[in-house]
Amino acid sequence: MILYDFCIGMYRKGDVMQALEQYINSKYADNVLQWFEEEVKQPEHINNISKVLNNKDYLKGIHKVLNREDMTYKGETYEVRKTIFQTVKSLINFFNGYILAKPVSLGGTNEDMVKTYNRVYRLGGYDKLNHDILDRLLKLGCAYEYVYYDGNKIKSKLIASEDGYPIYSEDTGDYIGFIEHYTSDSNKVSYWNVHYPNKVEMYTDEGGHIHLVDTKVSFGLPIVYENKENIDEVNVTLLDDIKPLLDEFEDFMSKLGDSIYTNSINPILTLTGSMLELPKGVSADACGFLFNIDNGGEMEYVTATMDYNTIKLYLDNLKQMMYDIAEVPSIIFGQSNVANVSETSIKMMYSKANNKASWYRYILEEGYDQRNEVIRHILSLKGMAYSDDDYINIEFNYSIPMADTDVINNLHTQYTDGCIDKQTYIELSPLTKNVDSVMGRLMDNTGVPTGTHQNQVDGE
User: Fold this and answer.
1) In this structure, are residues 360 and 134 in contact, taking their beta carbons and an 8 Å threshold?
2) What is the DSSP pairing of strand 223-226 with strand 211-217?
3) What is the mean pLDDT of the segment spanning 349-355?
4) CA-to-CA distance for 310 and 333, rounded, in angstroms?
5) What is the pLDDT of residues 132-142, one digit of tens each?
6) Over the stretch 411-445, which tens digit does the pLDDT of each residue have?
7) Distance (Å) of CA 42 to CA 37, 48, 170, 270, 390
8) Fewer CB in a 10 Å sphere around the end CB: N or C, the chain?
9) Helix or strand or coil: residue 34?
10) pTM for the whole thing?
11) What pLDDT is attached to residue 411?
């Protein structure tokens, strides 16, 4: 079985390798040895990298409102307000928590296989990694995971989104190669890690010319998580949908702040007649100054009348549109009263969030399946082979608000009816603080702690 799986894997890798070679020979016939240098300069890659970098800048607070010009009057500069709201971070954090606040559950047809994969996930820190992948997917539109074996544990590392260049066949659209490319800020030396189906070639231009530094064995290409429907599209994010509305909101709030401070809090003082005693200077922050004016003179503050009802209506509509487009429940930002709301009503409030979460779940599941296949291959090389009929399935546990008693009652009913096993019951129970600790104390009928192959997986 091991030999069979290995041969099948080599056959598939051979197909991908052949497709990549054809791609290189047809597109870079004049520079086959250093084709990767030209590949990273292709327009589709430049567009994606630019999009990632722009999104990172936006999340750092570099918004359109910062381009508002300050005003100059009589040689003095008046700094206009440039109010920034990081609302998008709250929206992203909501979806990350909603989808993965509760770790994914691993299930399957083979109990021993499930136990082994759960141990691999725990030792490799995959719960945290899953959060990081989704965070990048929501913020930047893409994430790249490279699975490897360090001689002790099966692990994954994330390649920076701005450094990733996935390669697709121009004929079939199949994923056939990957380049990790970056330039050091300190010494301006460039690096290219060129990923083939079975190896990684590492190049650098240190010394003034591009040359091969090292070659390492690989278990496959990096896993690509991308939020786009077609390979020709640029990756999209939540930012793309709400950025125009947030730009409008920030611009309006900045101008409103200027108006309030100028016309209401610090109104214009007008004088009719002569001032008997000229003040040396009045601070804009000061109150209660006394002015002496000539008989018959008048002094008054000029304030603007603002239509606060219209302003409030406009702002409320902007905020509501942002929440609608982002597909988050109104209760998240205190827009609804949830007192005595039934479980059914809460689920209805979360229906839009479920729609968006389902799309990201599809992207994540596709990547997790590829990860699990690489893990299966590594385990087979270590003597832990499973039947082709055995598989690992992923279950997402959305974080919908629910009373602990309701959750426990539902779990109990499902467990009694045989719909879930004991491990799933323990994992989903709100009373379980440490799943591994509880599972480790459970013994099967033979007195062997749950989980076999454990020493083989982590090298103990």
Assistant:
1) yes
2) unpaired
3) 83
4) 22
5) 999 999 999 99
6) 888 888 887 888 788 877 877 877 777 777 775 44
7) 10, 10, 13, 63, 41
8) C
9) coil
10) 0.79
11) 82
| Residue 193: strand, helix, or coil | strand
The C-alpha atoms of residue 224 and residue 176 are separated, in whole angstroms, by 11
Q: What is the DSSP secondary structure assignment for residue 448, as one 8-state letter?
A: P
Environment class of residue 429 by beta-carbon count within 10 Å: exposed (0-12), middle (13-18) or buried (19+)?
middle
Q: What is the pLDDT of residues 228-268, one digit of tens each?
A: 866 667 788 888 888 999 999 999 999 988 888 777 666 66
Spatial separation of the C-alpha atoms in residues 104 and 398, rounded to whole Å = 9
The phi-psi region of residue 133 (left if phi > 0; otherwise alpha if psi is between -120 and 50; otherwise beta) is: alpha
Cβ atoms 400, 350 nearer than 8 A: yes
Q: Any idea what DSSP says for residue 300?
A: E
Tokens of 239: 């930012």
Please answer whether residues 103 and 133 qualify as being in contact, where contact means their C-beta atoms are separated by less than 8 angstroms.
no
Query: Which whole-number Å values give the CA distances from 359 to 33, 222, 327, 362, in the listed order?
Result: 40, 21, 12, 5
The Cα–Cα gap between 191 and 184 comes to 8
For 86, list phi and psi in degrees, rounded to 5: -95, 45
Q: What is the spatial distance between Cα 220 and Cα 177, in angstroms, rounded to a whole number? A: 10
SS3 for 101-164 is CEEEEEEECCHHHHHHHHHHHHHCCHHHHHHHHHHHHHHHCEEEEEEEECCCCEEEEEECHHHE
Q: What is the mean pLDDT of residues 225-230?
A: 82
- For the residues of 199-225, what is the DSSP string, one character each? EEEEEE-TTSS-EEEEEEE-SSPPEEE
